[in-house]
């Protein structure tokens, strides 16, 4: 049996430290915000090279709060990719904005910057690139387009924490960015958690208010807000784990590189891991194959997990029928949905396991 990821081995390696961190919170009875959350926010801001980090209740709320804090409003259009987890566009919908999709670059699975300008209208307010699977989106071009058209850029870093684009951490390039600490991300907590990061003080101030009922001072409410705070227990766990993130990402990278070597020898289309300018976080390891469903069946028979991220592009989802898209609108995204296959990846995956997965796949 090889699972997609094994959180248990990771927990066991840090059990004493994590249990102690949880115990300390329980003993303190300081469960909401407080010093652990503040300390974690400082540490994450330093890690990413941004000025501010605001802990929130999930990656989805980080996207929503990030958009609102950057002044995206009801009726605005937000340009994003149709080939992502639904939370990306859901965040725009939830604040009354409209997601506008742009097809992907087939080599990277990320939004194709060449196609963005055609979709800009008077209503466009923001660009919302996703660093899908952990590979950084083409940020230079995206930032240039944003500058030219006076748009906000929010990076969806849910899958990319620790990745780098031209020497900078992803999350530190756009006006603001959303992080997720869902357990299966590179830095996962023991439940739901997320973070808004930015170097813009006005965005940071507003995000801080939004996560806490629109208030800076208790019982003084300046704007509509949410209850969307990061729990102290999650912050305490994340502080312990953040110290290991780079080392885990390096190991993920070694796993992905070994997969790439073995699979490309067999003629399978493997992901671009990095060139001199990019660093992939390797949250997911995703290949492209022609007989995808058959391969997945074969893996399953041998007890090897695999997943399809994502089987239906967002423009073809029932929930977005009202947006008026149809099959054929985004050919690269539609091709990807039929060909992608994500294999198990986690820092502790052994060379032997990788060889076994490759053997079953290419038999
Ligand atoms: C996981 C994920 C999210 C949402 O994060 P949650 O913490 O689960 O709310 C958003 N965008 C992408 C690309 C994701 O993979």
Radius of gyration: 20 Å
Q: Main sheet? A: 7 strands, mixed
- Structural class call reads alpha/beta
Average pLDDT taken over every residue: 97
Query: What is the rounded distance between the termini?
Result: 18 Å
Apparent shape? globular
Distinct ligands, ions and cofactors found in the model:
pyridoxal-5'-phosphate
Going across the biggest sheet, name each strand in turn: 1-9-8-5-4-2-3
Note down, in words, how this protein is organized.
This protein has 363 residues and is α/β, with parallel strands linked by helices. Strand 2 (77-80), helix 4 (87-94) and strand 3 form a beta-alpha-beta unit. A seven-stranded mixed sheet has the order 1-9-8-5-4-2-3, with helices on both faces. The protein has a three-stranded antiparallel sheet with strand order 7-6-12, with no helix packed on it. The radius of gyration is 20 Å and the shape is globular. 38% of the residues lie in helices and 14% in strands. It has helices at residues 7-28, 35-48, 59-69, 87-94, 139-149, 201-210, 232-242, 245-265, 292-301, 331-339, 351-362, and strands at residues 52-56, 77-80, 98-101, 124-128, 152-156, 164-165, 168-169, 176-180, 194-198, 215-217, 220-221, 278-279, 285-288, 340-343. 48% of the residues are buried. The protein binds pyridoxal-5'-phosphate.
